[in-house]
Amino acid sequence: MRFNVNQTELTENLNLHPDTLTKEELLRFEAPNLWRLIWELGLWVMIFRIFELPISPKLEKIVGDGRQISSIFTRLLNNRGLIEEYRTFLNEFLNQKSKITDGVAIFIDDVDQALHTALKEPHLTDEYFEGKVNPSVAVWVNAQMGLVDAIYNINRQSGHIKIYATIRREAFEAYTGEMRLNYLQHASFLHYEKDDLKIIFEKNIDLLDESQLFRKESRTLIGQFLGFDRLQHRFAIDLSGNPRQENSFDFIYRHTFGRPREMMLMGAEIDTLVTKQAYLNDSNEARIEKLRVKVNEVASFLMNQYAEETIPYLSDSKLLEFVKKVRSNVITKEDTQKLDEDFFKQLFNFGLVGYVRAVNMQGQLKQAFNPPATYNYRKPEPLPDTDYFLIHSAMNGRLMERHTYGNFYNKYNIIGHGYDFFPNTDHHIHDMAYYLPIDVSGNRMNASNEAAGHEFPLIEIYNKYFDFQNNPHRYELFDQNWGTASKVLGLLARICYCNRLNKQFLTTDYSPIMKELSSELEHFYFKRQYNARLRDSSSVQAFSIFSDKLIGRFITLGCYLVLDMRINWIYQLLRNGLIEFNDETNDAAFPYLSRSFFIRDLQRTEPREPDNPEHRQIKQRIFNYLSDCEKESLKTFIRDASDEVQFLNLIKTEEHRKWVEESILRKLWRPD
Q1: For residue 534, what is the DSSP state?
Q2: What is the DSSP letter of 560?
Q3: ω into residue 607 within 30 of 0, thus cis?
Q4: Which distant-in-sequence residues (6+ apart) come within 8 Å of 322 by Cβ?
Q5: Can the peptide bond before residue 135 be classed as cis, meaning omega within 30 degrees of 0?
Q6: What's the gap between Cα 71 and its chain centre?
Q7: Does the pLDDT value for residue 266 go beyond 50?
Q8: Is pLDDT of 577 > 90?
């Protein structure tokens, strides 16, 4: 048995030598029969040279003395003007096929990658970066299926010849020729179920030396590897308000596209993490957080790789626009109306957007994503009829670049193929006491104060407004507005980081980022009725004004207590929607905030020195008078504003990131 490679190689990886073959030249080869002819001729040349058999002298001048399919194939492509003679050469080989009397096996790999490399540059004559029907994609598909045609023909011509090649499944799915069923009988499709990949992953753990295992006594291999079997989701909760949990392997798996090489990369990267002494010394909570960071980091890399390899190409500009427009990793049917339908359908077919479907008569809902590389670009699947679409977890990094940490995660669901889905039909509504502050400024909770803008004790409107048990629609509106306020604080935290970095490192590198983040703030409606008079405690208008005051109060608390923003900066933000870091003072700023938001112990003298114990005491005293709702929300904001620094790509260098962590985050005020 002879082979096309030596004993040290398994296959020949196709290389089209892009320095000698331009994309413009390659685009002339679109017809499927042309590719079949060139592949078949090139393979016969290689077979004859493996057996040291002579070929036509004229053909020898064309292909040179190359023995590998890459060089032969490239030379044939470069001499396209002789295509009619190629048919004559091919007939000569067919007439001499009886000279092949021994077995020969040929293995060819990376066909798709070679074509992809040559075709990925933009060209005036196609729409490669926009998808849909275009010459580049037609060339990519027809070139691979031409190879399949050629192999099928040659294998039938001689029982001594066996040719094996890998192509992309997308190319096969796009093939609609009459030979499709014949090819199916000779094709093998690589497909791994989740359980298959878990077995592979665990076998690799089992191969590790015991010294590399974190917890040898664990009953599971994943527990031995990581030190824990399960972890809580940071944001998703069940209907009782408890964090949802998932298996550690499931967490890793759902951040990939379910392919072996991705799981192996995840395993290798995690191994570099868990074998570090710092990981061994950490608390279990800190180890879980480090795993989250590492998995999301690898997932972002996998997402970028997948976007590069998809055919047709994913448009970067359309992907950015999509990420800007979506508000959550769960998209309602209504929200899809705001999105580019064609691009959204492309994401669905690529498996980057999933959907929710019922799986039994009891109405149980499951999440589903299309596997990678199974779509037909010539006949994409229509969008399913579903109430909810889902964004793949590998896209979290893209979402985090445009949305504040934690605010794009659905509150009730962990996103992953095969996971249960819980529609947001039952809200976890707290008792009224949860929303009532311990106290407010002056005696305003228990007495009217016309000078402060309310003609009744504030407790009256608190009790009526927060009667959510009897007014669930009002709760939904409040919850939505509260979420918006949280997003505003998240953006403000990033802007403050950038401002501090510019000052510390005497640079303007972060000014464009600040400008971009500030433009994001413009999407939020700031000019609310913060300072309006409350004339009664039960009308629709009164509830609207009070709702605005609650939102402004929460934003003010986050800016004042956590971000150390000056009174005037907060005033300008709420009055004009602008964030300006200047030393100017405005005598109207403090009275405006005091009248509008009734925050007890809010002071003109700003407690902005994190190392000053007195300033920290002032903040703690203000915090103590807040409602449980406000306290929990501020704690979440502090946690998210700290944790997201590990993920933010906007921070330019590790030196800058370390400075933010040590000089800002470690000194950040945190309530007792």
Answers
A1: B
A2: I
A3: no
A4: 339, 340, 343, 344, 347
A5: no
A6: 39
A7: yes
A8: no
Please give the C-alpha separations between residue 303 and each of 48, 257, 310, 392, in angstroms, as whole numbers: 43, 9, 11, 10
Query: Where does 523-672 show beta strands of DSSP type E?
Result: none
Q: Identify the band that residue 122 occupies on the pLDDT scale cut at 50, 70 and 90.
A: low
CA distances from 22 to 19, 25, 115, 133, 173 (A): 7, 5, 11, 21, 27
What is the spatial distance between Cα 117 and Cα 62, in angstroms, rounded to a whole number?
A: 24
* DSSP classification of residue 644: G
Closest among 226, 237, 236, 223 to 288, alpha carbons compared: 226
Question: Among the listed ranges 19-23, 403-407, 416-420, 421-425, which one has the minimum average pLDDT value?
Answer: 19-23
The two three-digit tokens of residue 290, written as one number:
């480090």
pLDDT of 239: 79
Determine how β-strand 104-109 pairs with β-strand 161-165. Answer: parallel
CA atoms within 13 A on the CB side of 545: 17
Residues constituting the chain: 672
Tokens describing residue 231: 């972890």
**From CA 325, how far away is CA 322, in angstroms rounded?**
5
580: tokens are 């300006």
Q: Is 330 helix (H, G, I), strand (E, B) or coil?
A: strand
| Helix (H) or strand (E) run with residue 232 in it | strand 230-237
Residue 391, SS3 per DSSP = strand
Q: Which two tokens stand for residue 400?
A: 């985090």
Query: Tokens standing for 535?
Result: 């004339």
150 pLDDT above the threshold of 80: yes
**Nearby residues of 575 by Cβ (< 8 Å), 6 or more positions away:** 526, 527, 592
Closest CA to 292 of 317, 305, 273: 273
